[in-house]
Amino acid sequence: MSCYKELVEIEKKLKEKSFKVNIPISTQVMKKNNDFEVSHFKGVYTPKERGKFILTNFKKIAEGDSILVVNGEKNGINGYIGANVLMEIGLAFYLGLKIYIWNLIGENSTYKEELLAFGVEFINGDLRKIY
Asked: Exposed (0-12), middle (13-18) or buried (19+): which is 46, by Cβ within 10 Å?
């Protein structure tokens, strides 16, 4: 959620390039309310509601050709990828989708080997690398 404001800006740029873009449900809520303060949304939804969001996001991923992970800095970690996004990356890999990651991850990342095994492409913020 910490990168959702940037994600909305990237969504606009991708649409300008004629890509069909689906953003996560929680991003849609933040965008609609023009409120990107994460603390306003953490703990607001019940586990059941969060489960529905995750399932909806999974369905949207399954409808696509690729995913773009926007992974900025969080808690002093550059290229941070959280548990939920890691699940989405795993789903995309299982479905045979192309996986783009916005920023490099740390050399000591606990999931680096898995990402490399999935054949992800780190685009370093360059949308021209998405095809």
From this structure: exposed
pLDDT digits 0-9 by tens, 49-86: 999 999 999 999 999 999 999 999 988 899 999 999 99
- To the question of pTM greater than 0.90 for the whole model, the response is yes
Q: Quote the distance between the C-alpha of residue 103 and its chain's center.
A: 11
CA 27, 29, 32 angle in degrees (round to 5)?
105
